[in-house]
Amino acid sequence: MKKIALYILLMAFISACTEKVNITLKQNYTRLVVDGSIGNSSSRYQITLTKTADYFYNQPIPRVNNAQVSISDGNAFFQLNETKPGISGIYETDSSFHGVTGKIYTLHITLPEAIGGSSEYIASCKMMDVPKLDSIHVLFHPDYGKDGMWEIKVYAQEPGDEVNYYMFHVYRNDTLLTDSISKVVVTDDKYFNGNYINGLGAVYINNSHYWETLHEGDLITLQMSGITKEYYDFITQVQEAGFNIPFFVGPPANVVGNISSGGIGFFAAYSSSFSSIRIKQ
Questions:
Q1: Strand runs (DSSP E) across 116-174, as ranges?
Q2: Are 272 and 223 contacting, i.e. CB atoms less than 8 angstroms apart?
Q3: Do residues 49 and 63 lie in contact, with contact meaning Cβ atoms separated by under 8 Å?
Q4: What is the number of other CB atoms lying within 10 angstroms of the CB of residue 183?
Q5: Residue 78: Cβ within 10 Å count
Q6: How many Cβ atoms sit within 10 Å of the Cβ of residue 229?
Q7: CA geometry: angle at 156 spanning 103 and 148, to 5°?
Q8: Which of 48, 132, 179, 254 has its CA 20 to 30 A from that of 39?
Q9: Mind listing the pLDDT tens digit for each residue in 192-218?
Q10: CA angle 21, 25, 28 (to 5 degrees)
């Protein structure tokens, strides 16, 4: 009888555990997502506009087309054109455009239809200075991790005039390896402010990742950029939240960007210095 009673109780418990529960998920209102930056060298810089989508949205994230996008520096306006009008949602500058260190650049966006109750968005960012890279050195550590680790060392004079923030990108044979925000490296100058940066390990590359592994003859280029504290904080917050850029669905709401009117994302302006080295055996 005890075994029968125990069996009945067990079946009742299992039945209770497998009972269907209907959960209603709250849908968030749509918001504009802005992703883009400008630099101090002449190039076609791009701004991507998309919309946020619900978690279970199973269609391509909608891009925002036919918007009016421009950048101003306080004196002049620079119009951006959609790369594929009415289709791409990507807006780019003329190839001759370049920013100037010390200037504040403001992004102006006018949408054909309001998103989140607004059709006008702006974002501003100051273009910070950056030390000139004297050189870089690439060193392989065979005992780091499963298959070893590549280290890129930096040599440059840090100005030391104030607290500065830096971002590092890596190119291998003109291909960007740090192609998402999870791979970008950012730092402040707390430990080398005003000193010569004598072989600081700036970027580490996991040799286990075949798409990142370096080989003899590869040309490695390091891009060091001076960024604002606001952009440094934004990148750090998105990395901690585990999101990547392009983040077409938008980063978490608690990540602070610089887009007005409830928009998500960041418009960045930064100057850069480059140095290259070829991998030798």
A1: 118-126, 133-141, 149-157, 165-172
A2: yes
A3: yes
A4: 17
A5: 17
A6: 12
A7: 115
A8: 254
A9: 999 999 999 999 998 887 777 898 999
A10: 180
